[in-house]
Design goal:
With 441 residues, this protein is an alpha/beta fold. Helix content is 34%, strand content 21%. The strands form 4 sheets. Strands 6-7-8-9-10-11-12-13 form an 8-stranded parallel sheet. The chain has a 4-stranded mixed sheet with strand order 3-2-1-4, with no helix packed on it. Strands 5-14-15-16 form a 4-stranded antiparallel sheet, with no helix packed on it. α5 packs parallel to α6 (225-235), α6 (225-235) packs parallel to α8 and α11 packs across α12 (343-351). The structure holds fe (ii) ion. Fe (ii) ion (FE2) is lined by residues 57, 59, 118, 214, 313.
Length: 441
Amino acid sequence: MLDLLLKNATLPDGRTSMSIAVRAGKIVEVAAGLDAPAQQVVDAQGLLLSPPFVDAHFHMDATLSYGLPRVNQSGTLLEGIALWGELKPLLTQEALIERALTYCDWAVAKGLLAIRSHVDICDPRLLAVEALLEVKRRVAPYLDLQLVAFPQDGLLRGPQGPEQHLSNLKRALDMGVDVIGGIPHFERTMADGALSVKLLCELAAERGLMVDMHCDESDDPLSRHVETLAFETRRLGLHGRVTGSHLTSMHSMDNYYVSKLLPLMAEAQLRVVANPLINITLQGRHDTYPKRRGLTRVPELLAAGINVAFGHDCVMDPWYSLGSGDMLEVAHMGLHVAQMTSQAAMHQCFDAVTVNAARILNLQDYGLEVGCNADFCLLQARNPVEAIRLRATRLKVYRRGQLVAETPLATSQLLLSGRPTQTSLMLPADQPHFTDSYLPA
Ligand code: FE2
């Protein structure tokens, strides 16, 4: 007997009338029209069943701190970093844990079941590291939290000097933080930035760890840290283990230079995370008009065979005053800013907050195939494009075959003469959805 049989679902690749059979927390069968005895049977009524959303770039130590101790007046990245510096001495472990747990509640409600969070290691007390390791332990039954040791104040420029931050970072790794972070564009010079990339990649090679750096998060067309990151990745044989986050300077780089850079990144199997909500908010702040969008070159990176995910980055913190853990909102913004409007490109935007992000976290047993964990999300939409368009309601969220969140169907009652009595804003099932031309890779 199965534990759970989910029937009549549409999958992100377009297959319809699909059943997913679950036993002992795993998917044991995926087939069209499958019927078998199960302790629980759920009829998806033709709606979209997706693997859970994955956020490949977040800051859980800062989340939900908006307004503490004040708000960011200029709205810039640099004032955000300064503001975070004002807040750090005031942080308590209890408050950090409470805010992070609240955010994880929001995440689960939105079907977001895996998050890679950077955690600032510059405070020698490593208070945030301890707090987020505790959060990671507590949320483990329902959410995968992966931590990146992040020298927010710069590895080499910090007030306590380079040795201090490097030693904090190593201590954080010893305590159980999973990934090595960095911020080369915030070091004092291009040379120091390059040196920080080299040192951090060497540390990753020595310890057998993954790397995820904030890299070239500026509008400077001459910023070259992603080149160094790709070069060091190749030199040290870290292929497929290194992620460049943001890469906003690529938006402003010379086209000829980018044509040389993309193959280098592809050869290094560099992963990329763009953060559309934050990039469109923080970049171009020194421009008058025209104002640059600042998002990295997502379609071109994908065309070069590079794995690109969209991250949320911030929710209600010194850098961003909005957000709710909704990765469909992130995909929606990414689609617009990168002008990814073809059917194939819109599906790529959905992949950027699901499968591509899972690849960056190196999540095991993720997906809707036999043998994968029974983690999935039933959405009030008939396909990925409609899910993005509506930022679809997460009707049911499952973790290891157990229901962990549910939200009622979103319908509006209409009080109009001669018109239907309600609408869900979905196209009727029998109306063409224009997805025929999309063939999944
Ligand atoms: Fe970030």
